[in-house]
Amino acid sequence: MTPTIEQAQEGIVEEFSKYGNWEERYGHIIDLGKEHPDISDEFKVEKYRVKGCQSTVYLHAALDGDRVRFQATSDAMIVRGLVALLMRVYDERTPKEIIDTPPSYIQDLGLAENLTQGRANGLQSMIEQIKNYAVAFHTLLQARGAK
């Protein structure tokens, strides 16, 4: 069974709790970036580029039934690791779940405080784009008469 969005966030916090310092956590984020699958070249175009990121980040979303399917990547490995974490939380969720659930793991891990200002801003931009997609898909589903 797929974990809930809250369980996914709790799992990330638990996963990172075994790393004693930020150097080890950064290393883990980079490893996650190396493991994160690339996206199709058709989505590596300006239309899908996340504005506000120092690194190049592409984020594509599509509605699959009542779930949002995300694909994302970055040219910077640490940012790609942050992308991987966001995908673990938000991919294959309903638009309403995405809208209603803030990324609490970022605060719980102290990520925003320990990233460079540019990366923290980029992370916020990625979250905003994910939420924007969710709002658009939620509106579309409501227009179709779905919940």
Architecture blueprint of SSEs:
Layout: H1 5-17, H2 22-35, E1 57-64, E2 67-74, H3 77-90, H4 95-100, H5 104-109, H6 111-114, H7 117-143
Helix pairs in contact: 1-3, 2-3, 3-7
In short:
The protein has about 150 residues and is mainly α.
Structure description:
- This protein has helices at residues 5-17, 22-35, 77-90, 95-100, 104-109, 111-114, 117-143; strands at 57-64, 67-74.
- The chain is mostly helical.
- The chain has one domain (5-143): Sufe protein. Chain: A (Alpha-Beta Complex), CATH 3.90.1010.
- A two-stranded antiparallel sheet has the order 1-2.
- α1 (5-17) crosses α3 (77-90), α2 packs across α3 (77-90) and α3 runs parallel beside α7 (117-143).
- The longest helix has 27 residues, at 117-143.
- The protein is globular, with a radius of gyration of 15 Å.
- The protein starts with a helix and ends with a helix.
Largest β-sheet summary: 2 strands, antiparallel
The DSSP helix count reads 7
Mean pLDDT level: 93
Number of domains: 1
State the end-to-end distance: 22 Å
Q: What structural category arises from helix and sheet content?
A: mainly alpha
Low confidence ranges: none
Strand content: 5-15%
Structural descriptors:
mainly alpha, two-stranded antiparallel ribbon, 7 helices, 147 residues, Sufe protein. Chain: A, globular
